[in-house]
Every structure is written in structure tokens, then in C-alpha cells.
Amino acid sequence: MSSKVDRIVARLQEKITDGDYYEAQQQTRVAASRYIKQKNWDSAIDILHNVAQSLLKAQQGGSASDLCIMMVDVYKQAETKPDATSKGRLLTCLRLFQAAEPTRKKFIQEMMGWSAKFGEYPAGDPDLHHVAGSIYAEEHEPYEAERHLVIGTKDSAEVLAKMEYTWYKESDAHTAPHYAARGILPYLLVGNVRAANTTYRLFTSSLSSDNAGLNVQDVSTASSDIRIFPSLPLLNFLGLLLLAIQRGSPEVFRGLLSKYATQINEVDGWAEPLEMIGQMYFGIQKPRQSNPLMDMMSGLFGGGAGGAPPQRRQGIRDGPAPAGLD
């Protein structure tokens, strides 16, 4: 920071020390706006970043969030790309927010939108998603955590697996596959097979370690290991599904669906994700729904029967877990 900016920040931080939070926020906006008009982006960002941190440390989350969002807006005007420095400022502020601060979510949305527009990841920067998801996981906010961790970094799978297992322990023993699936299926839907395998491995390892009386059979192949749980057929299905994806055999996938059809049909919401996985990894297209009127017209006029073939779904997801995994 320049000496002039240093003085401005010091004066504003003094107001915060004196408890004049609103005045500090408003004067910060005025000071930053002057530099924005001059297109002196660095000075505007320095002021906003430093004063926002001071307000967060004073537990003034609402005022701080306003300045944080303004800082993201300056990033956008300056067309700042996500790098270690630009992301670091945002994450420093994010970690200082209190869990109960309602404006934090808006700040997270804004920084994800900025990183998606000016970075290389259409769903938002993985580092930002990882930190946001990890914070939500620590706060026991699983739905928000899942949304971010599934499109996070290579370290996100471990955080997600631990969170799902912790959540599972609050439920009945037979529900283990449902919680494991909350990590495994979304990872497969975004094309991250490695993270899906990591989630399965960590979840089943914890399950085995914590339940000495649980009957477990270890099965090893040339490429991977899998645990078989005779009392948890859907957990076996998930492990075998991961092996089938390695082989890429449609026949093996269809065989799994047939073998476990009864158990799968008893679970709400697995059908659509598994259908999408069949398309993505095994080239199995969804059967066209028959429309008698369209079929008759097609026969009369010699045209195709109603519309283009279904498109292969892309493995990008930035929303909540697929229906039925909630």
C-alpha cells in the first residue's frame, strides 16, 4: 500500500476501534470510490480489504460483507483474474465471518460468480469452493458443504467423506449406503472418478474401523480393492459400480442394475443419477418415450419420430445434490 492509502486505512480502522462502525463503513465506500473513478484498482482493493478485515474482527459482519462484495465488484471492473493473491484476499475475509452472519452467503455467491467469469472454471474456482465447502462442513451445514466440495479441489473428497460419515453416525446403521452415495454419485456426475473412489474408500474404512462386529470381506483386483458388506447391499453396489466404470463395460453395468434392482427401487431418487451415469460412462442412451400420435404422423409423412436424440449429459454440477440424495 502507498503511504496515502496507509493513512486512509489507519484513520478508518481507528473509527472501528472507537466503535463507530457505520461511519467507518460509509467512509470506506467513499474513499474506495474515489480510487475506482481513477481506475486505481489496487488502492481501492487495499482499502476495502483491510477495513473489511477490521470490521469482521470487530464482529460487524453486515458492514464487512458490504465492503467485501464491493471488493469483488472492483475485481470485476478491473477484470482481475483469479490467482493466489486475488483469491487470498477473499478467503482471508471469508474465514473471519461468523457462522450466523446471513450476508456471508451473498459474498460467497459473488466471489464464485467473479471466479467463473474471469477464471478458467465455468462452475467457479475450485480453491474457493474447497474453502467454502470446508467451512460449511465444520459448521455442520452438509447441504451447503456438498454443493461446494463436489466441485472443489483434490483435497475436497476427504473433507466430504468425513462429513458424510459423521452425519451418518447420527442415523441408523442400515443407512450407511445413502450417506456414502451423497458423495460418490455427485462426484461421478461431474466426471471426477478419482474423488468418487476416494470418498468410497474413506467412508468404508471408517465404517469398518468403527464397527468391529460388522461382517466385511476384502476383495482385491489387479487395479483396486473393494470391501464387501453382506448386510449392506447398496454399499456393495456403489463399490462394484466404481469397478464397472474402470472397465467401461455396458454389460457389467446392466448386470449390476439388474442384480440390485430391488434395493435400488426402494431408494428414492437413485434412478435418474444412475441413468445419467449410464450415459456418461457406458454410452447407454435413455430410451425414447413413445408418443403414439407422433409415431402415427411419422409413419404418414415419412419423417423422424419426434425430435433430436438425447444429448450426452456433461459432468458439471454447481447446484445441490441430485434429487433423492437429500
Task: Outline the structure in words.
- There is one protein chain.
- The protein is an all-alpha fold.
- Helices cover 65% and strands 2% of the residues.
- It has 16 helices and two strands.
- The chain has helices spanning 3-17, 21-37, 41-57, 61-78, 84-96, 104-118, 126-138, 142-149, 156-168, 176-189, 193-210, 233-247, 250-259, 261-265, 271-282, 292-301; strands at residues 217-220, 225-228.
- The chain has a two-stranded antiparallel ribbon with strand order 1-2.
- A hairpin with a 4-residue loop joins strand 1 (217-220) and strand 2 (225-228).
- Helix 3 runs antiparallel to helix 4.
- The longest helix has 18 residues, at 61-78.
From the N-terminal CA to the C-terminal CA, the straight-line distance is 47 Å
Low-pLDDT parts are 302-326
- Tally the helices: what do you get? 16
Largest beta-sheet details = 2 strands, antiparallel
Coarse shape: elongated
What proportion of the residues is helical, as a percent range?
Answer: 55-70%
Q: Mean of the pLDDT scores?
A: 89
Rg measurement, Å: 25 Å
Q: Beta-strand percentage?
A: under 5%
- In the sheet with the most strands, the strands line up as 1-2
Order of helices and strands: HHHHHHHHHHHEEHHHHH
Got a strand count? Answer: 2
Helix and strand content put the structural class at: mainly alpha
Note the topology.
Layout: H1 3-17, H2 21-37, H3 41-57, H4 61-78, H5 84-96, H6 104-118, H7 126-138, H8 142-149, H9 156-168, H10 176-189, H11 193-210, E1 217-220, E2 225-228, H12 233-247, H13 250-259, H14 261-265, H15 271-282, H16 292-301
Antiparallel strand pairs: 1-2
Helix pairs in contact: 1-2, 1-3, 2-3, 2-4, 3-4, 3-5, 4-6, 5-7, 7-8, 7-9, 8-9, 9-10, 9-11, 10-11, 10-12, 10-15, 11-12, 12-13
